[in-house]
Design brief:
With 438 residues, this protein is an alpha+beta fold. Helix content is 40%, strand content 20%. The strands form 4 sheets. An 8-stranded antiparallel beta sheet has the order 1-2-6-7-10-13-14-15. The protein has a 3-stranded antiparallel beta sheet with strand order 3-5-4, covered by helices on one side. Strands 9-8-16 form a 3-stranded mixed beta sheet, with no helix packed on it.
């Protein structure tokens, strides 16, 4: 056998082994990279903020950012009422009653809106656009003036979801009257969340949290197998305070309320949710509504419908649609407090919701709280005396100076701060959550 031939064979074998090792090594790296927490944020649909947290390969960061921004831009370009060249804006300015071509995305959102309009008896209605604009909750941000009843009544004749038709093949919308206009703001933000979630899953990313203007979708879990935590705000004007924190996975959460977007004239609040039946902003309804559904588009729209329907009708709608609903209503006998009502499967903080729900009288609420506090104090002092074998002193009794094996005071929450009790304080007060819906 010729030496040159043997040498060539050895070279081919060496290259084959090298390529084989390279492929195996690449596979191992791809399968065993350490998921890293990556965070992205920005604005969309005008001034709406968005944020996304993912656990993924850092090398995917640019692809993730591009996928998020492309998804949000697609929704904004097609469904915004603030962009004159969007599909929705062009449909609104058209006086034609023939089929108007739109994208499959816009047709899909309008179709879901029409379904929820039918199921809610018209409480949700995207054709309220003229009234939204009249009440200055649309693109027109001129000075707010309470419109007269005659103007409201005239515009009410131009709305009604039954005056709108939608088809999916080819995708198009159709008006039955030239004046008809639509506003997708109560459903498009939720759909934007869904689009981002779909884009992330197409990149084989399974663990992430998407939030657009307070509407949320959670997928999978964190690397430590901990669920995503989402906060629900108390519906208080000018205050950012948590009502409860819930765990969320493979579900969406949307919240609508009367405490962020409103005008106030002569002490009366005009909030942004319009009742299609009256043409007026909703009065005397819930302070906020939170809805959990599989998709965020549905959660977003149903939250608005429940704001219009009120507690009883809203909970019934939630049960009929198979979604979970939490309604927070003002407790007029106790300013600053709220009464909670919910469907059975809503995973709200039970201690908060049930307490406010069950104890309506301020006297009894105060008495119960005081009794619990007094009982805890007596028990703490008694334990201190028994374990510390000394007289009561300070607010913690014998526990104030009782040391553990590490020489940390056992009651340093009260009088003598130490390492372990500082950690206890932190654990008690650190109510961590990943995002907040409002």
């Amino acid at each position: 056998m010729q030496p040159a031939f043997i040498h060539k064979c050895l070279m081919i074998l060496a290259v084959s082994i090298a390529l084989s090792d390279c492929g195996a090594s690449g596979s191992l790296v791809a399968q065993h990279f350490q998921p890293t927490r990556l965070e992205f944020e920005g604005t969309t649909m005008g001034t709406c903020t968005w944020s996304v947290v993912v656990y993924a390969n850092p090398e995917q960061s640019l692809d993730i950012q591009a996928a998020i921004e492309r998804s949000l831009k697609d929704v904004d370009d097609r469904m915004s009422t603030y962009k004159p060249d969007s599909e929705v804006s062009r449909f609104n300015t058209s006086s034609s009653i023939e089929w108007f071509d739109v994208s499959a995305d816009t047709a899909r959102v309008v179709q879901r809106a029409q379904e929820i309009s039918l199921e809610s008896g018209g409480a949700f209605d995207i054709t309220v656009a003229p009234l939204v604009n009249l009440w200055k909750f649309g693109p027109d941000k001129s000075e707010f003036v309470v419109p007269d009843n005659a103007t409201v009544d005239a515009l009410r004749k131009t709305i009604g979801f039954r005056k709108l038709s939608v088809r999916d093949n080819p995708p198009a919308l159709k008006k039955s009257i030239p004046e008809l206009q639509i506003d997708l703001s109560a459903i498009a933000q939720g759909y934007a969340v869904d689009r981002v979630a779909i884009a992330l899953k197409s990149l084989d990313i399974d663990n992430f949290l998407v939030e657009v203007s307070g509407e949320v979708y959670a997928s999978g879990k964190k690397p430590d197998n901990e669920s995503w935590k989402v906060g629900i705000e108390k519906p208080v004007v000018g205050v950012r305070e948590l009502y409860s924190v819930i765990e969320l996975s493979e579900k969406s959460l949307a919240t609508s309320g009367d405490y962020r977007n409103f005008y106030e004239v002569a002490g009366k609040r005009y909030a942004h949710t319009i009742d299609p039946q009256t043409g007026m902003p909703v009065e005397g309804g819930p302070s906020s509504v939170s809805v959990i559904a599989v998709d965020c588009m549905t959660a977003d729209a149903v939250a608005t419908a429940v704001m219009v329907l009120g507690k009883n009708g809203g909970l019934e709608l939630g049960r009929e649609l198979g979604v979970e609903v939490l309604v927070l209503s003002p407790d007029y006998s106790n300013p600053g407090m709220f009464l909670a009502a919910q469907t059975d499967g809503f995973p709200t903080n039970k201690s908060t919701a049930r307490f406010d729900d069950a104890i309506d009288n301020s006297f009894w609420r105060t008495l119960v709280v005081a009794s619990i506090f007094f009982a805890v104090a007596i028990i703490a002092m008694s334990v201190g005396v028994l374990l510390g074998r000394q007289r009561l002193r300070g607010s913690c009794g014998g526990l104030a100076t009782l040391d553990d094996p590490d020489a940390d005071p056992s009651c340093s929450l009260c009088s003598a701060p130490g390492k372990k009790c500082r950690e206890l304080k932190k654990a008690i007060t650190n109510n961590q959550h990943d995002t907040t819906t409002e």
